[in-house]
Amino acid sequence: MTGSERPTRDAVNAIFGEEMPRTTRDERDPEAPEERFDRDEWLRANVPPHHG
User: Is the backbone of residue 46 left (phi > 0), alpha (psi -120 to 50) or beta?
Assistant: First the structure.
């Protein structure tokens, strides 16, 4: 490898491990997908008539 070549992402990950996550744990939604589905269902069932 010459000085002008950059190593590939896979090569870097092989040395340092997986790529860092794009978001931190506290930025991610901790609830399970089924909880979100339940909340969405509740919202759809309780939408006022003028919101169609």
Answer: alpha
Q: Does 52 reside within a domain?
A: no
Question: pTM here?
Answer: 0.30
Q: Is residue 51 part of a domain?
A: no
Burial group, residue 29, by CB count within 10 angstroms (0-12, 13-18, 19+): exposed
Q: Does residue 50 carry a pLDDT above 80?
A: yes
Give the three-class secondary structure for 40. helix
Structural domain contains residue 1: no
Residues spanned by the domain of 19: 9-46
